[in-house]
Amino acid sequence: MATITRVQEVMSLILVDTSVLIDLLKGVDNPKTEIFKSIIKKNWSFGISAYSYQEILQGACDEKEYSLLKDYLEKQVIYTLPNNLSTFESVARTYFNLRRNGITPHNSIDIYIAQTATHFGLMLLHNDKDFDNMALYIKDINILNELN
Prior knowledge:
Blueprint: H1 6-11, E1 14-16, H2 18-25, H3 31-41, E2 46-49, H4 50-58, H5 63-73, E3 77-79, H6 85-100, H7 108-120, E4 123-125, H8 129-135, E5 142-143
Parallel strand pairs: 1-2, 1-4, 2-3, 4-5
Helix pairs in contact: 2-3, 4-5, 6-7
């Protein structure tokens, strides 16, 4: 049995946001896609949220791209929040609290993605400033900004 270092344990619990996936799929190079490429190269485990799955698919240009994206995404680990009223209330409360602190996320789906990261104890890799703003007020969210 291989020994897993603490860094590997932490880094294997990664939720990749739609913003990073889109950039990678479009061939955009930036610090976050470079981190994602390193994660893939090191064969570290990562996953996406069900909300990212939806966002990527709804952005497809045509049937061929939709099919290619669907095939790729279905091979990924997909994290899904419980489908119950407490999940929806928690997301609504988070949005409400953020607004009361002067932060209005552009997309409520981002709050679901942040909630997915905290619910499963995942580090969030993103390229969306809304998450950095949310992180100031959402306890337990861990943003992945660099690899050691």
